[in-house]
TrEMBL record:
Residues 108-154 form the AN1-type domain. This is Zinc finger A20 and AN1 domain-containing stress-associated protein 8. May be involved in environmental stress response. It comes from Saponaria officinalis (Common soapwort). Residues 90-109 are annotated as: Disordered. Keywords: Metal-binding, Zinc, Zinc-finger. Residues 12-46 form the A20-type domain. It comes from the Eukaryota. GO terms for molecular function: DNA binding; zinc ion binding.
């Protein structure tokens, strides 16, 4: 059978290089891009669509994300996407470079240090009940002049564990 009858196309003669000239091979399924370039291209498209819908919501006056329209008009959004795309790409980069963030998105903190001697403790630091972090030398309450009242904490724990039980008085006959 011919490829015209089956709808299949003949495979190209040799491997296709990525259209972004990154040096890797592309495929027809990924628009002649390598997997990394295709993924980057796809993410940029998603960010542009998200930016276009958010600007459309702002222009229309609705601020909630639940007011999205089920179908999008292709031609008007494509024009807006082209005009907004540079801003959408530059905004995440500027926010990421402006503040140092860790892997989890939380601000990165410096090395943990002992509150008494300022020694770096890392993972071996001890958290005291007073809320401070100490090294192995200063971990005990008598070594760092701990303001936490252990006596009252112990009394409260005993009082909670052993409530006072009183029997009702019996009526005298």
């Amino acid at each position: 059978m011919d490829h015209d009858e089956t709808g299949c196309q003949a495979a190209p003669e040799g491997p296709i290089l990525c259209v972004n000239n990154c040096g890797f091979f592309g495929s027809v399924a990924t628009m002649n891009m390598c997997s990394k370039c295709y993924k980057d291209h796809f993410l940029k498209q998603e960010q542009a669509k998200l930016a276009a819908t958010s600007i459309e919501n702002i222009v229309n006056g609705s601020t909630s994300a639940n007011d999205k329209e089920p179908a999008l008009v292709g031609s008007s959004i494509d024009v807006q996407v082209k005009a907004i795309e540079p801003k959408a790409i530059s905004a995440p980069e500027s926010s990421a470079s402006g503040s140092v963030e860790g892997v989890n998105g939380k601000p990165k903190q410096g090395p943990s240090r002992c509150t008494s001697c300022n020694k770096r403790v890392g993972l071996t630091g001890f958290n005291c009940r007073c809320g401070n972090l100490f090294c192995a030398t200063h971990r005990y309450s008598d070594k760092h002049d701990c303001p936490f009242d252990y006596r009252m904490a112990g009394r409260d724990a005993i009082a909670k564990a052993n409530p006072v039980i009183k029997a009702e008085k019996l009526d005298k006959i």
